[in-house]
Specification:
single chain; 16% strand; alpha+beta
């Protein structure tokens, strides 16, 4: 311990004595550690921290699935069967996403996102309110369901944390609801936008319809029961239900935390690998600095060895100095990461679950400490071992070496430069592939014209709009008013926004065709107003669009997309064909495909029906999206549309107002974020690698200035000196690029699932990155080479 304290004090004096070296080394380490700390804080919040619920590993998501697709919700009859036929769950609860229209006094109405939940929902989660109570079992029934529970955020922001809020009524959806409780903030870990909960009352028709799969289900596994045992029993239950009802459905059980992170885990792992490369490059740079410094200290080290210092003692001294450097760099790195934490959280919020929990906690600090110690070993051990092989007699003698011998003696520094170049090359290739992927994504045609198209959402409360007729009347009045606004070409409504939202789907009955049970075509349904297809500029391929003649009292009609035409009637003309179960609709038109499942997925079979035909898909009427086509980009259009909504119903909020161009950009924003982060890390690695190349070549020139002077005195031309220095430097670059090239061919395959329109071995990307890295590295070598060319042999020889 005494030796360690002595080494630390000595190392601190050495760092203070050479402030230039200390500042460069600390900043280099701080950048690498800051990047690792920041990304690990994201990984910690999203992947590692358990959900803030008691025994959160017992919480699972249950869903009926189409075999073998593996995704879905559940119907009410199946939910009841699950409850009655299992012995592995302590509780099963259903919920559905909804929204509430809240208007207090003369304030503008606000839309509050929320959930309708079974009475035992909070019990299954293991969450207790911070104020009041949760729902009672009898509040799951119609007539007793006008009670709500508030989130802490809504209670604070809208009701000023009023402790007297309990048992007071608030205007929700045009009715008076009683506030019975306030939930703790940690509940936002599940659904961060949810701010209000109400009881879930199943409509009678849903209780009888086993094919209506629209409810989400969570369950809590009993103590002592494993996830595998729960899956085994529930698979058996699903098998019995399939044999009994021939519904073609299985069941999926997945831990809720795993369900949340499954989609983002690959990107986060990629980011951790990327910042790991950045830290590796930073360590090699500092190791090179320490090697150069150790060379200067060779005489000091040799004298200490001559006086009896052992090799192990010298290694301990270097490791102590390295640990001191890394701890200081780690402290600055944590500071840099902390400064950027708020910005990182805001950037990640739209894409990552639990992004609001990103921050620096004890686990992140322990990780940073571990990284700091690891880096000290990486860059401290290299010069320590190199110095340990010092020949005392050679060092204590006066002498000099040739430039070639000097470079040979510095083989370790050169090897570290090769490592830096190889690591930077791998990161640059990854960044280049992501850039090209995002470029291809943004070039994808969505199937409609997004320019000058404004979108917004409407949720009409069923308490106020109790029947389809009143709902249709609202939309008719609104569209008439909006269409009359100056600069508006067309206005329409649709049940699900293109690209951003998936519609309802189901197996469709086709007149004149027979299919095996549960194998009729699966089709997406969307309800639209008369002019939707025109407003969105979706091309008509054959037949006609909807007109004023397609009224509620007219024969039902639908327009289908090209994918459905090819899927259901391959090689036939679908115009005049009829589809539907109880209500038969005639196909009157075929339109182009729209990428409604996202820009990166193929279009699916779809049907459009007029919302005036209320009996076709009645459940869609209460949640519609308005789309307004303008003559030009009009920043005042959103305010004008909101005024028209208020004129029809003063209590109705308009929300999620944005241009369709923004909607399209948001669909690839997570990919753009991955690209941006990877580009930043690749750029940082390139900068550090270039600094490393420059440092090694500058040191080489400085160490061998005397020989360069002698060569030039004997007649060597400056061009030959330039060629010699550049040749040595570019030799290292070529080796580094070659190693990086081989590593890239293997490592880039791990990001193949994140790429779009480009392969992991895209030739253009590899060629561009090779040329870019070679050019930048050449510039880094050129500066010390030019300095060598300007050596004055007379001055050098006189000095010697």
């Amino acid at each position: 311990m005494q030796n360690l304290l002595q080494d630390t004090r000595y190392g601190l004096r050495m760092l203070v004595k050479r402030p230039g070296f200390t500042i460069v080394a600390v900043l280099t380490l701080a950048l690498g550690i800051a990047a690792n700390t920041a990304i690990f804080s994201v990984v910690n919040a999203v992947l590692l921290k358990p959900l803030p619920f008691p025994k959160s590993e017992q919480l699972v998501d249950l869903a009926e699935t189409f075999k073998p697709d593996g995704w879905g919700t559940a119907s009410v009859p199946t939910l009841e069967d699950w409850k009655s036929q299992n012995t592995v769950f302590s509780g099963i609860s259903a919920f559905s996403f909804t929204s509430f229209n809240l208007q207090r006094n003369s304030d503008l109405p606000q839309r509050v996102p929320g959930l309708s939940v079974s009475a035992n929902y909070f019990d299954v989660l293991g969450v207790k309110p911070v104020l009041g109570r949760s729902f009672l079992p009898e509040e799951d029934t119609a007539g007793r369901d006008r009670v709500v529970v508030l989130s802490s955020e809504l209670w604070r922001s809208t009701f000023n944390s009023d402790p007297q809020i309990l048992n007071t009524t608030i205007p929700v959806n045009g009715q008076q609801y009683t506030v019975i409780g306030v939930m703790p903030p940690e509940l936002s870990s599940l659904y961060r936008t949810v701010q209000m909960w109400s009881p879930l009352v199943f409509p009678e028709k849903d209780r009888q319809d086993r094919g209506n799969h629209k409810y989400f289900v969570i369950g809590r596994i009993k103590d002592g029961v494993t996830l595998a045992q729960a899956r085994e029993q529930m698979n058996a239950v699903a098998q019995r239900l399939e044999e009994q009802y021939h519904n073609g459905r299985g069941i999926r059980l997945m831990q809720i935390q795993e369900l949340w992170v499954a989609g983002v885990r690959p990107a986060l792992i990629l980011m951790m690998v990327a910042v790991g490369f950045v830290l590796l490059i930073a360590c090699t740079n500092v190791a090179n600095l320490l090697l150069a410094r150790a060379t200067v200290r060779q005489r000091e080290i040799s004298i200490r060895i001559a006086l009896g210092a052992g090799r192990l003692r010298l290694i301990q001294q270097f490791l102590s100095e390295g640990l001191l450097l890394s701890v200081i760099g780690g402290a600055f790195g944590v500071g840099l990461a902390w400064l950027g934490m708020d910005m990182l959280g805001k950037i990640a919020f739209p894409f990552l679950p639990r992004a609001q929990e990103i921050g620096i906690d004890s686990r992140v600090l322990l990780f940073t400490l571990f990284v700091s110690i690891l880096t000290s070993v990486i860059f401290g051990l290299v010069p320590a071992l190199q110095t340990g092989r010092t020949d005392i007699q050679d060092v204590l003698k006066e002498g000099s070496n040739s430039i070639s011998a000097g470079l040979a003696a510095g083989w370790l520094r050169q090897a570290l430069v090769v490592v830096e170049i190889a690591a930077a090359f791998v990161l640059l290739i990854g960044a280049g592939l992501m850039i090209r992927s995002v470029m291809y994504m943004k070039q994808v045609e969505p199937g409609f014209k997004a320019q000058n198209l404004l979108t917004a959402k409407l949720s009409l409360p069923r308490e106020k709009y109790a029947d389809a007729e009143s709902t249709i009347r609202f939309y008719n009045q609104l569209l008439t008013r909006v269409e009359a606004l100056p600069g508006v070409e067309a206005a329409a409504v649709i049940s699900h926004l293109p690209v951003e939202e998936q519609g309802f789907n189901g197996n469709v009955t086709v007149e004149g065709k027979t299919y095996p049970p549960n194998e009729s075509p699966l089709v997406e349904y969307r309800m639209v107003s008369r002019d939707y297809l025109k407003a969105a500029n979706i091309p008509l391929l054959r037949g006609r669009f909807f007109t004023d003649q397609d009224r509620a009292d007219s024969p039902p009609v639908v327009v289908i997309n090209d994918s459905m035409a090819k899927k259901v009637w391959p090689g036939e003309d679908p115009i005049g064909k009829r589809v539907g179960d109880e209500v038969k609709a005639t196909v009157i038109g075929v339109v182009g495909d729209v990428k409604n499942y996202g820009l990166l997925r193929k279009p699916v079979a779809e049907m459009y029906a007029p919302y005036t035909m209320k009996d076709f898909w009645p459940d869609m009427l209460w949640n519609m999206r308005i789309m307004v086509r303008a003559n030009a980009d009009d920043t005042n259009l959103a305010a004008a549309v909101r005024r028209e909504v208020q004129s029809v119903d003063p209590a109705q909020p308009l929300y999620a107002v944005q241009s369709m161009t923004v909607v399209l950009e948001n669909t690839v924003k997570d990919k753009s974020l991955n690209m941006t982060l990877l580009v930043v890390f690749a750029g940082l690695s390139l900068l550090l690698a270039v600094i490393g190349v420059y440092g090694v070549m500058s040191y080489s020139v400085a160490q061998h200035t005397r020989e360069i002077g002698i060569r030039m005195a004997l007649g060597a031309r400056p061009s030959s000196i330039l060629k010699l220095i550049l040749g040595r430097g570019m030799f290292l670059i070529v080796i580094g690029v070659a190693i990086g090239l081989l590593a890239s061919f293997g490592l880039t395959r791990f990001i193949s699932t994140m790429l779009f329109g480009v392969t992991p071995t895209d030739p253009l990307t590899f060629v561009v990155i090779v040329l870019l890295l070679a050019l930048v590295a050449l510039l880094a070598c050129l500066v010390p080479a030019q300095r060598a060319m300007r050596v004055n042999p007379i001055v050098v020889l006189r000095y010697e």
